[in-house]
Amino acid sequence: MQDKLQKLLNEYQENYNRFTYGHYLDPNNIEDAIKTGLVGCYYLDQGYLPEKRQAIGQVLALYDKYWGDKLKFGYIDGEPNNLISYTQTTLHEKINQINLAGTDNICFYWSNVDNLEFVPEYLCNAYSRAEWYEKVHQEISYVQIYLPISELKEFGVEQLIALNQQICEILQPMHGFFGLGIQHSHEYYDYQYLEYELAHQFLGLDISNVQADKRLREGFKCINWLTILSDQLITDKLGSLEALKERNNDNEIRFYPYTGGVVVRAGEVPELGDVASNPYPKHYVNVNALLKPARAPEIASLGFGSINGEIRFNNRTSKEWQSRFDDVEATDIAVSHEQHSAEVINMDSKVRISIQTGQLCPHTGVYSAQINGKIEYQELIQGYKVEPFIDSETQQVHNDVTWQLLRREDGGNVYRN
């Protein structure tokens, strides 16, 4: 595993400038507007209950135990305009304030940055609506954590898995995840167009900016390196944990039960899913196929509306992102649910690189296809789904076209290895 971990850390460093954007407000070019690191999120039903509030406080205490010295500023009263030092109150006082909120809102945000415009790499954040609000609007509660990728080595891979088991034992979430994701600032909406680009360049990254989405009552959002499922979700959508194990023949998919659920691990270490080199990590594809019936049928848009013509996530592209591993052939998995109707991508084919309508483009370049007896050409962009082709003369829409790669923008090989 150490070799795989070092390979990931090397890949991360080599690509650092592709997914890290310095903030224009920082003249020293130290603080970032967006970055990539370890992200965990745990989704709760009835977060207003006293036992859930106590559990949220316990998770803050657990994070403080290991990384409390990293936390510098934040707020605990839902008031981001009034940042205070993390050490201004004791841990006991912070937890007591959570418990004393009763069934009202709680919202705290503790991180290693002193300006909410900047992206933290250490963060413990929780949000739970008041009882009346959740009952009326059905929004869910959540606890979220950030860590730098270096903690895979410093804290340890197996130790992070055990920590996730412990967090889940405490919180009893409906579901959740932990793995590589885009870390953003408290003022995340300013950079959603960058998230959109990065999400199409690195398919292993989670996009986490609509956490209280009521649709997540129907199932988990998306798989990651660690995907967390409650016993109830497994029973309702997947049958049983034993049935899952029987359908799995991928020895790098492992199950870590805790009282109330299970953590499912996709491979030894997290994956970036770089579209240019390894867009569909095998174990992610297999976990996706294994757990798909328990996934929420849809999610809220991961982006707000454009304010200046820039591209952000909308409802359609958010759904496409959520299901980005669906069109890829799973191996070592006996899938009991209906396979996707579209032809799956065979990544081992020894022919010219091709892509079908609705699939993700692996390389920016010029592609050709034969349509109605004519050769048509298109320039397709890496990481984006291929849209249906519209004949410029007849306006006929072609929804099932296979495009062959003729020339890559980066000058690389146009044939599959």
TrEMBL record:
Protein name: DUF3396 domain-containing protein
Lineage, highest ranks first: Bacteria, Pseudomonadati, Pseudomonadota, Gammaproteobacteria, Orbales
Superkingdom in the source lineage: Bacteria
Cited Pfam families: TsiV (PF11876)
Organism for this UniProt entry: Frischella perrara
